[in-house]
Amino acid sequence: MQVFGVIFIVLSVCRSNLATYGGHDLFTSLGQLNELWKNEVLVIKNMKKAIQNMDEIKASLVKYIKSHEDAQLNQEPNFDYLGQPINGYLMIRHVALGWQEVREQVFKVENETRQIFDELKDREKEKLPDEHDIHGAAYGLARLHSLYSLNSTQMIENGVIEAKIKNGIHALSEPSVMKLTAWDLDLIARQGKTQGLYNTMVDFYGVLVDKFRGEELSKEKPFETFMASKRNLTDIQQDIRHAKILHDETLIRRGSRSGARTHDLPLDPKLRKKKKFKKKTFELKDPITDEERAENHRQLEMPEVKQKADLQKELLCTGVTFRTANDTKDLFCTYAHNNSPWLRLGPMKVEIQSKEPYIAVLRELMYPHECDNITRFLGPHLDFPPGRMNPRHMINDWTMKNAWPNEAHNIHLEKMTRRVEHISGLHASSFKEESDAFMCGNYGIGGHYGTHPDFSKWNPNAFMDAKSRVNRISTVMTVLDAPIAGGATVWPFLGVSIFPEKGSAAFWFNLKSDGRPDYLTLHAACPVLLGQKWIAPFRFIYKYEKLHSTSCNVA
């Protein structure tokens, strides 16, 4: 009976009314990984108690605990650890693979222990990662390596994330708590192939054979995982040969930055000697800056336009802009009050990033302690966005989790709204339905959001309907926590990039003065390289009945 009591304690910390094992895309949110870690710590603590009374399953539990401690999860959950993307991947791998083995070994026991194991199964009502999460996290690592040109040696040999971003940031992480195994390298390389990140594919395949042989000779436990995946050296060598051919053929036919990403030079020494590869470094020619191509950049009949749009986004993410000095000569920073008596006492720092369409940064909109309070409040409420990001959807362009509060849910959100109303002169309360609810978000491993609009399609009938919520006139996106590196918000067709700063906000108009959408305001969130990123955006709703609530100056 003592054994039954201990097992009940082990599982009591896990019970919830959420979904079954897996299917939660935990790799898309460091906030949810942190909640998983908290529960994981409690599970490990009680597993240690259970081991004393469960000799039959001791080996499986001990192995799980060892994996937990090897990954250095036996510490207070913190975002410094999770902000190192390899650490986040390793945590997911530990729980997804380790828990699968526990359930397979432990649940074999019958009769008197069946009730105990029924209780243990209850942990699957918690939000747990599964193999889908491992693949998603591996894709996140591949995306970071490819986009930011990470130092492959540092990443593979030392578990260090290192990159030099063109905005002057030299990103350098602490080593991950464990090195990537041959199984991990193979998975990341295959994700690179699937997603068209051929530079990452060949870099990881390039060291895989030596890693495989080293683990085979040393009889390391990661090698057992590799063999369980039914992959062998012959399979790997064949994949590597095909990968090199695919890389070089893609580079020759389409170039290094046209849909699929490759290195600037072929891997084949003979091909490297060709005249075409002795050109100077890559230059962006004829960037898309017109509305017509921006509006249609995703149409299937214009693939070259989409490729260039994606390229412009990627360049901006790495700190490269195609704007000239003439484009930026009239931009400025100022202390603004917008004739608000309150702001006259303490003007707000405003940095103009674009005049047409209007994009600005509101510096220090929120205090650090206010941001921290909001993120603590948001943590338990994070979930899938609606629609195309439903659970078990294919890996896509939105690796984040969201919550949708309004001002009534948190006093600091109310303060944010009030300050924005003062500086903008617009009605902004989501509680009063003057804007959408806050679409607060937390990004995951390599978390990003592809190019998208904040407006809806133009509907002239709705525009003239006094009862209609016409469109989203503008957006304010406040950064509640900023990553150490990466995570910029970029406008690919304007050449504007804003790197996140905790407490500051980006403000822009989505519509033109006649209410029509401005397709140059399509924007994207770049992958988070190091650290964590929380945002709190909300969009002003443009209602016919309030078209004249703000006066217009006519020249």
UniProtKB/TrEMBL annotation:
GO terms for cellular component: endoplasmic reticulum lumen. Residues 1-19 form the signal peptide. Its cofactor is L-ascorbate. Pfam families: 2OG-FeII_Oxy_3, P4Ha_N. The keyword Nuclease does not apply. Keywords: Dioxygenase, Iron, Metal-binding, Oxidoreductase, Signal, Vitamin C. It is found in: Endoplasmic reticulum lumen. Its EC number is 1.14.11.2. Its main location: endoplasmic reticulum. Belongs to the P4HA family. PANTHER family: PROLYL 4-HYDROXYLASE ALPHA SUBUNIT (PTHR10869), PROLYL 4-HYDROXYLASE SUBUNIT ALPHA-2 (PTHR10869:SF244). Catalyzes the post-translational formation of 4-hydroxyproline in -Xaa-Pro-Gly- sequences in collagens and other proteins. This is procollagen-proline 4-dioxygenase. It comes from Tigriopus californicus (Marine copepod).
